[in-house]
Amino acid sequence: MELEERLNDVRSHITAAETRGGRSAGSVQLVAVSKTFGADAIRPALQAGQRTFGENRVQESQAKWPQLKSETSDIELHLIGPLQSNKAAEAVALFDVIETVDREKIARVLADEMKRQAKTPRLYVQVNTGLEPQKAGIAPNDVAVFVAFCRDELGLAIEGLMCIPPADENPGPHFSLLAKLAKACGVEKLSMGMSGDYETAIAFGATSVRVGSAIFGAR
After folding, report:
1. 3-class SS at 181?
2. Torsion of CA 35, 98, 118, 76, to 10 degrees
3. Distance between alpha carbon 131 and the CA centroid of its chain, in Å?
């Protein structure tokens, strides 16, 4: 199956999941996760009309996306991997959405960089719904306080919450928890669901799903 066929297959599954969940058509954004794939592998997705992409690493993204953005004007690029403070300037310059605000230090650095560059990428707080020690993210019980800190002390507009459920658990309860936390914080967007569980995520209210291997193939 060619990339365009795989992309259209994912799109049709998203549409069906929207319908099943009583969601309006087009209410779920597809973020095509292009990490580890070069520009030549990404161009067919652009030619098929895909405009929203997710990347894990700032440095890798800098090597391919400035050129791709110069070729196609309406690309929206999401950072969905961990952000180190020494890469914050580059991240603010390149990305339209940063989904991995996961600690006070990075929130402060982003606030400073956004003022310095006069650029306002949209921000999501990453939540560690499974309390996994190896995984980044705010603990669920701390989310409300952290979102308030970002908004009130730093003046950051937090648009959404993001999570990556534990690989060996049913993702449904994690998606449900993220939706409840978002509602409690007055946050509208939910970035949750990947290639194996994005239809479940849509059932629990995802507004964007991050799909890589189902579109680009195995890494």
Report:
1. helix
2. 50
3. 19
Amino acid letter for position 13: H
Q: How far is CA 217 from CA 34, 147, 213, in A?
A: 10, 35, 4
Q: DSSP class of residue 85?
A: G
HSE-CB of 126 using CA atoms within 13 angstroms: 23
CA-nearest of 7, 70, 9 to 41 is: 7
Q: What is the pLDDT of residues 65-108, one digit of tens each?
A: 999 999 998 999 999 999 999 999 999 999 999 999 999 999 99
* Predicted local distance difference test score (pLDDT) of residue 1: 74
DSSP per residue over 89-128, as a string?
HHHHHH-SEEEEE-SHHHHHHHHHHHHHHT---EEEEEE-
| 155 DSSP assignment | -
CA 54 to each of CA 181, 194, 211: distance values in angstroms, whole numbers, following the listed order? 23, 11, 9
Residues β-bridged to residue 213? none
Are the C-beta atoms of 91 and 57 separated by less than 8 Å? no
